[in-house]
Design a protein that fits this description.
This protein is an alpha/beta fold and 531 residues long. 28% of the residues lie in helices and 23% in strands. The chain is built from 16 helices and 27 strands. It is globular. The C terminus is likely disordered.
């Protein structure tokens, strides 16, 4: 068993709105939220007052403890206000992908039994259709304004008293994001107020921010990574969060330059852009002090290329998952120079880990041995909503959550994640990690992006199949050249044996490769969802 080097932290038994905004009055006129495109600013004093007035307005409209409110919005400066207002009114918040179809949205509404929706006017048609399909939604509010719908802006004038929702931090669900877990259909992840708030305290000794720090929120707030790293954590400490609705490279780079961003929390595709895209050279990024990548594996060479180009300390990584509130590992800000390349960090405070054999799950492995990563700590989710069997399959009787990720630990406690258990390719009995091949492919000067999946050859063997995006300024890259490049650098069983050129690698908002989309392609040698 591996234990954190940090001292344990006591459970934070506070509602999440109090855990984050409890010191808002101290920060007063410090900018809390800034619109990265037009500069609109909300101070800490305003954020505290606004979320309380909107909570009163929601309660006056009928929102009660135990209700579920669906927050359906891209990143805006109104998103945190709406989130904390809903939890203060006693609701659990299920965050919804702003690009979800009406049918996908309706499934989440139905599964979560959401009675209320908060959206923005550009997404209103989708929200209305989803509410019709799901049934049970009492009212749709908008953050901005739309005819026939009450606006959160109007609620700022509410004279109703602050709601008196008696939140039990240990039991009541604050956030209900949806995750597929290690496999299967999306499930509601029940994260209590205590679990989310305690995870913030666990992370603080390793990565913290404060007044004067400026964090750029480009990853989505609806995803647990954005909700924690870009919203809850910096707002808890008095930092300024500059908000962008989506990632567009020039807008992103301009925001870093114009708002003098000091810290970036990103996913690997953004690291790739910072390392390779020529537009980066046109902006002044000298305000940056550090960069942390998470949500998907990041190649060590790519990380080094990015930090060297920006003149920064080595890019740090972090590790976790929705079901873990989400953090378990991070490269501490004060140890970025010492961290070995490719590590996702060390255990954060109050967290335990086991590495167990893939062939014998009851066997614990030691330093340097790769196996499935198991986690235990106060950040482990309450469970999957309405799915006790799925919860039991994920969390064993001793409280260990089985992540489905494969990794190993070195002698100094640094964790290295190799790949997903379910995504390992079995070539003639040998295990091949797609992430390793993807990292290698990205070192080719003619390759802009790449993804690897398992496919079947004519003999029924599972083989590595690379999907490659060519650099637009490089001509003539062939399938044979790609396969030879890999073959010269890996053991024979790891060789790429099929190559398909594509325009773009499909990715989730978090940056994770959507391998299921690649498996649907006619060239994939259809494997379907692996079990």
């Amino acid at each position: 068993m591996f234990r954190s080097e940090y001292a344990d932290v006591p459970p934070v038994d506070l509602p999440i709105h109090d855990a984050v905004l409890g010191r808002a009055a101290d920060f007063g006129d410090t900018p809390a939220l800034v619109d990265g495109t037009d500069g609109t600013t909300i101070t800490y004093a305003q954020l505290d007052r606004f979320h309380r007035r909107i909570a009163a307005g929601l309660a006056e409209a009928g929102v009660r403890k135990g209700d579920v409110l669906a927050l359906h919005s891209p990143n805006t400066i109104a998103f945190p206000t709406a989130f904390y207002a809903a939890t203060r009114a006693g609701a659990s918040v299920t965050t919804v992908h702003p690009l979800a179809t009406a049918e996908e949205f309706a499934k989440q509404l139905g599964d979560s039994a959401a009675r209320w929706i908060v959206t923005v006017s550009p997404l209103l048609a989708t929200a209305r259709r989803a509410a019709e399909l799901a049934g049970g939604v009492r009212e749709i509010f908008v953050c901005d304004s739309a005819p026939g719908h009450r606006s959160l802006i109007d609620m700022l004038a509410s004279t109703a008293p602050d709601p008196e929702a008696a939140v039990d931090p240990a039991e009541d669900v604050a956030a209900l994001p949806y995750s597929s877990g290690t496999t299967g259909v999306p499930k509601g992840v029940m994260l209590t107020h205590r679990q989310i708030a305690t995870n913030l305290a666990q992370l603080e000794p390793a990565v913290t921010a404060g007044p004067g720090d400026r964090i750029l929120a480009v990853l989505p707030f609806f995803h647990i990574y954005g909700l924690t790293a870009l919203m809850n954590a910096p707002l808890r400490k008095g930092a300024t969060v500059v908000v962008l609705p989506r990632f567009e490279l020039d807008t992103f780079l301009a925001a870093i330059q114009n708002h003098r961003i000091t810290g970036l929390y990103v996913a690997p595709p953004i690291v790739l852009a910072l390392a390779k895209h020529p537009a980066v050279a046109q902006y002044d990024l000298s305000s940056l002090k550090y960069l942390i990548s998470a949500a998907a594996p990041l190649d060590a060479q790519l990380a080094a290329a990015c930090s060297q180009r920006l003149g920064l300390p080595p890019v740090g990584q972090a590790y976790g998952m929705t079901e873990l509130s989400p953090g378990t590992h991070v490269v501490p800000l004060d140890a970025m120079e010492q961290a070995p390349p490719g590590t996702v960090g060390k255990l954060i405070a109050g967290t335990e880990m086991r590495i167990v054999s893939l062939d014998d799950p009851g066997k614990d492995l030691g330093t340097g041995e790769s196996g499935e990563i198991l986690i235990r700590g106060p950040q482990v989710m309450k469970g999957y909503l309405g799915r006790p069997d799925a919860t039991a399959a994920m969390i064993d009787a001793d409280g260990w959550l089985h992540t489905g990720d494969v990794g190993h630990v070195d002698g100094d406690g640094w964790l290295f994640v190799v790949d997903r258990v379910k995504e390992l390719i079995k070539y003639k009995g040998f295990q091949v990690a797609p992430a390793e091949l993807e990292a290698l492919l990205l070192t080719h000067p003619g390759i802009l992006d790449a993804a690897v999946i398992g496919a079947h050859d004519e003999n029924g063997n599972e083989i590595p199949h690379a999907h490659v995006v060519r650099r637009p300024d490089v001509d003539g890259l062939t399938q044979g050249e790609v396969m030879m490049y890999v073959a010269e650098r890996v053991a024979p069983y790891k060789r790429v044996r099929r190559v398909t050129f594509i325009d773009t690698v499909p990715r989730a908002a978090s940056g994770k490769i959507l391998r299921r989309e690649l498996r649907k392609s006619p060239q994939a040698g259809e494997l379907g969802e692996r079990t």
